[in-house]
Amino acid sequence: MTSVKTFDKKATTWDQNPERNKLVENAAKIISRTIEIAPNFNLLDYGSGTGLLGFQFIDKAQSVTFCDTSEGMLEQVKKKRDAHRYENVNILKTDFLSDDLPQQRFDVIASMLVLHHINNLDVLLSKFNQALHAGGYFCWIDMDEEDGSFHSNNEGIAHFGFSRKIVEKLLHENGFAIHTFDSSLKYRKETKKGEYHFPIFVAIAQKL
After folding, report:
1. How far apart are CA 125 and CA 175, in angstroms?
2. pLDDT tens, 93-147?
3. pLDDT band at residue 14, thresholds of 50, 70 and 90?
4. How far apart are CA 131 and CA 128, in angstroms?
5. pTM value?
6. Strand 132-143 with 176-191, pairing
7. What is each CA distance from 197 to 24, 56, 59, 159, 188, in whole angstroms?
């Protein structure tokens, strides 16, 4: 898994990437079209970084919990919370792979461009299932299969994206049923081979 220190260093400039911001906004639109975020919903943004995804739902949900292992990233979440005086923001510095689950249960868990860093996905997906209310949703946003070009340095990268078949298999084996699989998004990025548009999927699954 990629070093926490790596993300700590990137935290202050993370939001300055317009392509990243556009991608997050479009992914959030797909989620909103699929799930009606009710005013009593509690949402978890896992591997939240600076909170770009979770803050898309801040005015819709009862609460949004931003969970990450990077203190630098969570510090940016705190700054946004304080600047806008949000009262429905929770901040959680923990790792579901090694730490106890929070006592709170969630209606929606979303995780964007995080799971390709994780080796043991069965453990994490099982934890997500446990952390959801019955009938809750997990939104998995990540890369389609690629050749390793997405990152300039692949140290700590566990998966070069995922095929739809693998995504559906992992979700099914860990207690989820696919509701929506959207692969219409693209992320434009400069790579060693030049500019490339990486396909991004949004898989929305419901806890069985």
Report:
1. 9
2. 999 999 999 999 999 999 999 999 999 999 999 999 999 999 999 999 999 999 9
3. very high
4. 5
5. 0.95
6. unpaired
7. 15, 24, 31, 18, 4
pLDDT at residue 1, rounded to an integer? 54
The amino acid at residue 34 is T
Residues 172, 174: Cα–Cα separation, whole Å: 5
- Bridge partners (DSSP) of residue 132 are 106
| CA-based end-to-end distance of the chain | 29
Longest dimension (CA), the chain: 47
Separation between Cα atoms, residue 145 and residue 118, nearest integer Å:
15
Percent of the chain with pLDDT over 90: 88
132-143 vs 106-112, strand pairing mode: parallel
